[in-house]
Amino acid sequence: MSAIKSNYKRITVKSLIDMKSNGEKISMLTAYDYTMAHIVDGAGIDVILVGDSASNVMAGHETTLPITLDQMIYHASSVVRAAKRSLVVVDLPFGSYQSDPKEALRSAIRIMKESGGHAVKLEGGKEIKDSIKRILHAGIPVMGHLGLTPQSIYKFGTYTVRAKEDQEAEKLIEDALFLERSGCFAIVLEKIPADLARKVAEQLTIPVIGIGAGNGVDGQVLVLPDMLGMTHEFNPRFLRRYLNLHEQMTGAIEQYITDVKNVDFPNEEEQY
Fold it and tell me: Of 8, 13, 23, 117, which shows the fewest CB atoms inside 10 Å?
C-alpha cells in the first residue's frame, strides 16, 4: 500500500490520474456545508464529494431519492466556498439525468454554473450512456459510480453486496470499461467483492475509488458523519469510525445544559 503524498496546490482531474500512475492512493470524503468542508479541505483531502447522501445525513430521509437539484446546488455552493485545494465532485440527484440526456446536460450545467463545482458524478453504466455523452461533450468532467447504486435501491430491494454472481460481475466490468472509453475521469465502486474491485482497477487507466470494495483500488471514500462517528445506527463492515463524536457531542451538550441550569455559564470572565 502506498504512503506517497504529493504537494498539489490544487487537485484537478489530471492530478487524480497522475496519482494512479504514480501509485499514490486517493483520499475522498463527503461534505455538505462550509464549516465541515473547510476542515476537510484544510486537512489535505484530495476529493470532496458533495454526495446525495445529504438526503440521509442532513435531511433525515431514509434514501437518497428525495433530495432535489436545487438542494444539491445549495450544499455544493457551501462546500466550494470552503475548498481551496480539494477537487469538488457533486452528485447529480435522482431524476435529474436518467430519462432525458438533454435534462441531464441542463442539470450538470446548473451545478457547474450555480455551485462552482469541478465535476459531477452519475450512477450507472451503459443504460445512461446518452446522458454521459451529452455532459462530457459540454466539457464537464464526469465521475462514474457502479456496484451498489443507492439511487436504484428500490430496484435492488436491499443494500447488500453487489456483483457476487458471475453475470453481474461481468456486466460491472463491461460498464467500467465503457465509462473509461466514454471519457469519465474516475469511477466509484460501492460495496462489491474486493477481488472484483481489484480486477477492475487493474484493467482501467483511470482511478477507481472504493467504498466497501477492499484495498486493491486506487482510493477510498467514506461519508464524513459516519467516519467521524456522528451517526451510530449505520454499521456496515467497511466503515471505520475514526472518532465517536456522537458520544463526545452528547456529553458536551449535556454539560452545557447543566452549566446553564446551575448558573455556572457564563461566569465572570465570560461576560462584559
Answer: 23
